[in-house]
């Protein structure tokens, strides 16, 4: 009887650890850029796999170098936002969670998107006064100074 209770408790502990490793995460964050690719993949469990183009400037070479970041998405509430971002080409912020391990049935990456925020376009203020060019004042020579006539 004690052996059965021990095995049941051990099985519950092992299942609890397995559940935590598959559902839990140890890191969360945000990344901004434009979505450059989305595809739905998987034989049995379909996940949305995508690529975020973060852009970037290379300080070493002085050129613009694209940086790509791969991500996965399982949430049905986030998929339409990702598809809209791909269609419109808008800049977005992806909120993600990084999982402990990548399991074969869970997606191709350890980064899973939990929300998408569309970034506002930068507003150019239209009601600011334009700077006026300043005029330089050139001093005029005094009018009463007579030049001596050197042709006498």
- Determine Rg (CA atoms, Å): 33 Å
Secondary structure category: alpha+beta
The CATH first-level class of the domain at 24-118 comes to Mainly Beta
Apparent shape: elongated
Assign a percent range to the helix content.
Answer: 10-25%
Our estimate of the beta-strand percent is 25-35%
What do we call the CATH homologous superfamily of the domain at 24-118? Nucleic acid-binding proteins
CATH architectural category of the domain at 24-118? Beta Barrel
Count of DSSP H/I helices: 2
Look at the structure and give the mean pLDDT: 82
Low-confidence stretches: none
Oligomer: single chain
Could you say what the CATH topology of the domain at 24-118 is called?
OB fold (Dihydrolipoamide Acetyltransferase, E2P)
* Strand and helix order: HEEEEEHEE
Q: Tally the beta strands.
A: 7
Largest sheet: 5 strands, antiparallel
Report the end-to-end length measured between terminal Cα atoms: 139 Å
Region (Disordered): 125-152
Protein name: 6-phosphogluconate dehydrogenase
């Amino acid at each position: 009887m004690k052996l059965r209770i021990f095995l049941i408790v051990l099985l519950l502990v092992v299942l609890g650890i397995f559940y935590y490793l598959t559902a839990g995460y140890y890191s969360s964050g945000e990344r901004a850029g434009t979505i450059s690719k989305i595809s739905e993949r998987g034989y049995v469990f379909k996940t949305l796999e995508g690529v975020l183009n973060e852009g970037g400037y290379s300080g070493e070479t002085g050129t613009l170098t694209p940086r790509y970041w791969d991500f996965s998405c399982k949430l049905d509430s986030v998929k339409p936002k990702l598809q809209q971002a791909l269609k419109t080409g808008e800049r977005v912020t992806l909120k993600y969670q990084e999982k402990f391990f990548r399991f074969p049935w869970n997606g191709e990456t350890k980064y899973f998107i939990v929300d998408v925020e569309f970034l506002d376009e930068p507003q150019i203020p239209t009601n600011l006064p334009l700077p006026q060019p300043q005029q330089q004042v050139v001093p005029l020579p005094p009018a009463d100074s007579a030049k001596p006539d050197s042709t006498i």
